[in-house]
Prior knowledge:
The complex is a heterodimer.
Chain A: H1 2-29, H2 35-40, H3 46-55, H4 62-76, H5 89-124, H6 129-143, H7 146-157, H8 180-214, H9 217-224, H10 229-241, H11 243-257, H12 261-266, H13 272-281, H14 285-313
Helix pairs in contact in A: 1-14, 5-6, 5-8, 5-14, 6-8, 7-8, 8-10, 9-10, 11-14, 13-14
Chain B: H1 18-26, E1 60-65, H2 80-89, E2 94-95, E3 105-106, E4 114-116, E5 121-125, H3 142-150, H4 162-165, E6 183-187, E7 190-194, H5 200-206, H6 217-224, E8 242-244, E9 257-258, E10 262-267, E11 284-289, H7 293-301, E12 306-308, H8 314-323, E13 328-331, E14 336-341, H9 351-360, H10 363-370, E15 376-378, H11 411-420, E16 433-439, H12 444-457, E17 461-467, H13 469-477, E18 486-492, H14 500-507, H15 526-536, H16 541-557, E19 561-567, E20 569-572, E21 577-578, E22 581-582, E23 588-589, E24 595-596
Parallel strand pairs in B: 1-11, 1-12, 16-17
Antiparallel strand pairs in B: 2-3, 4-5, 5-7, 6-7, 8-10, 9-10, 10-11, 13-20, 14-18, 14-19, 15-19, 21-24, 22-23
Helix pairs in contact in B: 7-8, 9-11, 10-12, 15-16
Amino acid sequence: MTRYIIRRLLWGVALLFIVSALTFVLFDLLPSGDPAKLRAGRTATPQAIAHIRHELGLDKPVYTQFFDYMKGVVLHFDLGYSYYSHAPVKSLIAERLPATVSLAVGAIVIWLLVGLSVGIVSAVRQRTLIDRTAMGTALVFISAPEYWLGLLALFLFASDIGKLAVFPGAGSYVAFSSEPVKWFTALILPWLVLAASFAAVYARLLRGSLVEVLGEDYIRTARAKGLPERRVVMRHGVRSAITPIVTVLGLDIGTLLGGALLIEVVFNIPGVGRLNYDAITHADFPIVQGTVLLAALFIVVANLLVDISYAFLDPRVRFK
Amino acid sequence: MFNHHGRRAAPSLALVSAGLLALALAACGSSEDSSTSTIPLKAGESPLGQQLTGKHRGGTLTVYDHEDFEHFDPGEAYGGQDYTVLYAIERPLYSYPPNTANKLVPDVAAAAPVISDGGKTVTVAIKPHIYFSPPVNREVNSGDVAYAIERGANPNVSNPYFHSYFNDIVGAEKANGGAIAGIETPSRYAIVFHLTKPTAGLLYGALSLPLSAPVPPEFAKPLDAHSPTTYGTEYLVATGPYMLKANAQGKFLGIGYQPGKSVTLVRNPTWNPHTDYRPAYLDQININIGGEPTVIGQQVLKGQDVVQNDSPAQSIVKEAYERYPQQITFTPGSGDYYASLNNARGPFTNLDLRKAVWAALDREAIAKVRGGPLVAQPMTHFLYPGVAGYEQAGGDAGPKVDYNEHPEGDMAIAAKYMKLAGYPSGKYTGGKTLQVVGSTGEPQEGMAQIVNQTLQNLGFKTHLSLVDQSVMYDKYCTVPAQEIDVCPNGGWVRDFADPQTVLYVPFYGPAIEAQGNSNWSQVNDPKINAAMQKAELVVGEPARAEAWAKIDEMLVEQAVAAPEVYVNQASIEGSGVAGVNQLWNSGAWDYDFTSLK
């Protein structure tokens, strides 16, 4: 097990290196705004632009820039400075991360609770009205674009612009440390909207998987032994059917912690996703690089945790 | 303005119905300022009629702005959005009250400048008892103004307009941040500028830019030694009624400014109201950065003590005009858009072909794409409403030349010029495929499509590339070596009221640069260049207006570009706000004059 984890961690480091290199190359190859010109302004003299390019290190070959960057990351955990605001990327990400984590964790809790519950009920009550209604509703939430759903939720339920003033609206997010109650109420709508499509996907996934498992011989045997149905479903059925859900969950957690861009924009939550989006529009490469690296790191770690969790969920799994 | 639409261009504006246009036209009133268009700022008000007397003193205004700010350093800031904060916290030598786009008044200066030596010396007296905010806390003197301007040439500051407006100061051309020989401070309250050419008129206007706002050298010099400077990015002191919330050392980054999140302006405790014409009614201004434009718009229209700092979304403009007419303003004279035609190489070296494109282009369709007549009017010449010389150069109707007569486009007149250009069929048969580069995103994309279709209607084969706006600027339209034939999304906003700031850089031949070129059409006409060199030296507003109006006529005669639209800027406010627009800054809210009801 330990050797497996070490091997996976080493692969993770290699993956992060490759992601960093690819981001560098893509930013260099694809047509994007010139950071030096953006920084200098439209009518800046060529000398001023050249000075800024030199100061930002953009006049060096791309491999030298990459080497300098990786040296900073590895030796000092230095992600550089924003071309746009001149603030350290590390501190900008650190400022934004709590909002993204708050958003992601709350939504994950909701979608797991709702998605798994609905999936189990639908599987157990397959082809009933409950099943059809639940799966039909799930399809609606899967089909609804997150951005549109967010706007709809605000126009219906936000206290400032909604028809029914129930929840705080866009821009009401505050840090947990400053006002915990306001933090909670401000995140209710974003959590629900973000969780809606995920819950729907998870419900359908688990239903499909559980229906299949419930048809297996060992389930019939468990029932024949006279085990209570609840125990059959939860202990023998769900435990086996949940493996594909955990795999997807690992990817989703990793992706979300890298920033839930659309929800952050609609609800004006200052998270990592919005930081990345703004950086792309300003050709602010150090921030793009930092946020991509962060997202990749989360995905690597989340997947590792998922793989480890297989051993606990399914006794047949052993790591070599 | 010597930048392309410094206040972030409206993302998209409403297609307002003809009925609304009728309402707007019915509400038109006479204007005191002959060069300002007559579309009302608010229902029943002329652009100059807005109330400058506040309703109440005190309170906190919430501001939404879906984009972040670029610079708070008066030496670096260069754009309408940044100016909304800059002119609340800093005071240049001269400034414009919000209800004028043309009349400068003394700000840190005590009076209008004394121009002597045939326009080659400018002497400015400075008011006493103006103070820097904490932690500097001392009285402003002439040395602070001198340092503020000198640091503009410091490569670590690299002010974007220093060499456009301050280069004629003796020694400025080779300045790099140190003392400039042509700037003298004979006393604590006087500063003298010695010029190499008699361009005092232009310098006077440029002294309204943020670069002339005093900067204390003992505080800023160590910060300016960093590359780039940390004055304005981490630390700052104010002279205006407000300051960025900061700690005892003057550091505001992470306190009064959280990048991408918020800006907090609080009262400057050392501001001396007896030296200032600004009333500064508000106690605090909280700016929330980010958000979705339609949500922000709704929050403003349904909110109380709130305004939107940047351009409202298209759907919001329409809704505001129909349902909240007292909460929306339209400010004319907010810049222009034109399609640049390559005058240096390719088919458009032919004057008649350029005239044909001008004649054929449907400017009314472009105005509709930009949001309709409340926010865009067909452009008829290169000086735009609100700029001195606009009326002299033809006003709204523009010069009386046949290719300008029909803003809806006239293919018959276009065919006449095609024939004069040597194409008897009235269609281009030269075989050259035109490279057309426009910007993605509406309304720019729609504008580019209209121009492209016009070119095809004239028989041109075209290759239209739509790229991100920054790519369009940086890699194509500002790089002459790319040999782009047509850039349909060019535009201009003046830096200050002087007409030179509208015509000089975009159309002066010697201003063409290999990179970062703002003369997109690469106009290099010896007669026009000579006229500009002469007009630059003219002193006095009426004479300058007359001189630059004549240059405008020459540009129209040469059809150096195909005009598209003049822009009116929409701004929205909450029901509890007595907002005041800055006419000189594309209608942005003026936080020194805005109050709560």
